[in-house]
Each structure stands twice: as C-alpha cells, then as structure tokens.
Amino acid sequence: MPDLKSPLRLGVNIDHVATVRNARGGAVPDPLRAALLAEKAGADGITAHLREDRRHITDRDIEGLMEALRVPLNFEMAATDEMQAIALRHVPHAVCIVPEKREERTTEGGLEVAREENKLAHFIAPLADAGCRVSIFIAADRRQIEAAARIGAPVIELHTGAYCDAHAEGRFAERDAEFAKLRDMAAFAHQLGLEVHAGHGLTYDCVKPIAALPQVMELNIGHFLIGEAIFTGLEASIAHMRHLMEEARNEQAGEGAA
Ligand code: PXP
User: Fold this and answer.
1) What is the per-residue pLDDT for 258?
2) 146 is catalytic
3) Which residues of the chain, if any, have pLDDT below 70?
4) Ligand 1: does its nearest atom lie under 6 Å from the Cβ of 135?
5) Is 49 designated active site?
6) Which residues pair with 135 in a beta bridge?
7) Does the Cβ of 9 fall within 6 Å of ligand 1?
8) Contact 76, 47 (CB under 8 A)
9) For 234-253, what is each residue's pLDDT tens digit?
10) Residue whose C-alpha is closest to residue 189's, from 151, 155, 219
11) Which of 4, 9, 50 is CA-nearest to residue 197?
C-alpha cells in the first residue's frame, strides 16, 4: 500500500505554454524552456498531453522533453493505438490515460473504465511491461476506482474539475459535496492499494483541501500556473503553489498529531 508519509509531489503541466506558442504558429514561447524553468523552481515532474489534434503539445515537444528533462515526464494520452505507439517509442516515466473528445476545450470528465475494462486492461499491459507507471484519470466514483484496480493500474488521478469549478463559481454546497467525494474516494482507492494523484482546475484558492488529503501523493497543475506566470513569472507561481501545498500538508499533519 502506498506510504501515507510520502511528500506531496507537484507535476507542472506545460500544455498551455504550447497553446500560446501555437496561437502564432512560431517557436515561442517554448514549452521546453518552461519545463526546464519549472524543474528549477521545484517541480517534481512535468506533465504534457499530446492530443490527437495536436492543439498544444506536439510530437517534437515530447521528443525535446524526453531528451532534456531530469525530472520524470508524465505523458498524458488518450487510449488510442497511435498514442500507445508513441509512448512505447519514448517510454516516459509515467503515462496517464485520459478521455479525449475533439470538440471539448479541456479534458471534461474522467475515463469510463468500468465499461471498457477488458479493452483498457489490454491497452495498458504493454505500457506497464515497457516500464511506464500507468495512471488512469477518473472521476471520484467507486465503480471507476474498482475497475481501475481490476485492470492492474498502479495509479489513479482523481478529476478535481467539478470541485474547482463549484468553488470558483461560489456554489459552495456543491463544492463541499464534490470535496467529500474526493476525500472518501481517495481513502477508498488507497485501501485498494492504488497510488492516488489529483488534478484539473486547481488554483491557489482551492488547492489546500486537496493537498491536505493524506492519500494524495501528487497534484498535476497547469492552466492556473501558466496564467499566473503572466503576472508573477513561472518560478514564482510554482513556488507559491508549492508553498500552499506544503502548508496544507503540515497543517493536516499537525491536526493528525493533536
Ligand atoms: N491532470 C489531467 C489528467 C489533465 O488532463 C489536466 C489538464 O490537461 C490536468 C491534470 C491539469 O489541469 P489544469 O490545466 O486545469 O491545471
């Protein structure tokens, strides 16, 4: 069972540096430069999502990241043959399987694992055999978590989008209900022996309750950090996020000891 005392890791998602670059079709701002800066600022890993339509990260970005990064790359991808072949060519440290729809603006929901169990089990097996740590991006839903455990995924990432949106829009009763699901399902997944990550939509305002969940070992955060970097710089935005995460963790440890 994953160790509850492990420090909380921060994976910085650099997709939206590529979004800005691609708005003009040139070479700047360079996502690789952002990744190296994030590494310097204390990111424990870099996350990049190679979408089927290549709307932000490109195949060349992935090559550059694989060559230059010292921290682990978490390669986000849909469960397609094309992406599996790319992952098997590069063998990144981690592969996170996400649902993907062309018409969506961002990854809207979690993966439907329960209905696609056999297919996904066969899909992730070669990735795990090659040495990638496979994680499955899912909603905080018992059925999906049980299915993720059954297909042999060592890691799940819980989708925090609904919680973050409810917080940002002032729907606090809904936010609290979403948070309760995340809290309970993080504990449930941990009991099943899964390593628990979380991410999507996290900001300075809503990160702490998630960071305080003792079973959560890693947060993956992108859009807010890149947006905030416009005002404060990337190193400062990452450093402040880390600070809040650590503060939440320490407060929670203090409560546990009290
Ligand atoms: N985790 C996963 C699996 C994602 O798909 C995304 C968005 O690409 C994130 C985390 C990061 O979300 P955000 O950019 O909203 O911080």
Assistant:
1) 57
2) no
3) 256-258
4) no
5) yes
6) 96, 155
7) no
8) yes
9) 999 999 999 999 999 999 88
10) 155
11) 9
pLDDT at residue 7, rounded to an integer: 87
Structure tokens at 177: 């209900």
Q: How far apart are CA 119 and CA 40, in angstroms?
A: 39
* 0.90 exceeded by pTM: yes
Distance 201 CA to ligand 1 centre (A): 7
The string of DSSP letters for 86-117 reads HHHHH--SEEEE----TT-SS--S----GGGH
| Active site (annotated) includes residue 56 | no
Token readout for 61 is: 């970005």
Q: Among residues 46, 45, 44, 41, which one has the least CA distance to residue 14?
A: 46
CA 242 from centroid of its chain's CA atoms = 15
For 241, other C-beta atoms within 10 Å of its C-beta total 25
Catalytic residue chosen out of the listed positions 167, 195, 200, 218: 200
Q: The tokens of 172 are what? A: 């606090």
Question: Please, are residues 62 and 77 in contact by the beta-carbon 8 Å criterion?
Answer: no
Q: What are phi and psi of 218, to 5 degrees?
A: -155, 140
Q: Residue 257's pLDDT is what?
A: 63
Cβ of residue 107 lying under 6 Å from some atom of ligand 1: yes
Would you state the structure tokens that stand for residue 22, as one six-digit string?
A: 């691609």
Tokens 């098997």, residue located: 88
- For the stretch 100-109, contacts whose Cβ atoms lie closer than 8 Å and that sit 24 or more positions apart, written own/partner, are 100/51, 100/52, 102/52, 102/53, 106/200, 106/223, 107/49, 107/137, 107/159, 107/161, 107/200, 108/161, 109/139, 109/159
Residues 227, 233, 237, 239, Cα dihedral to 10°: 160
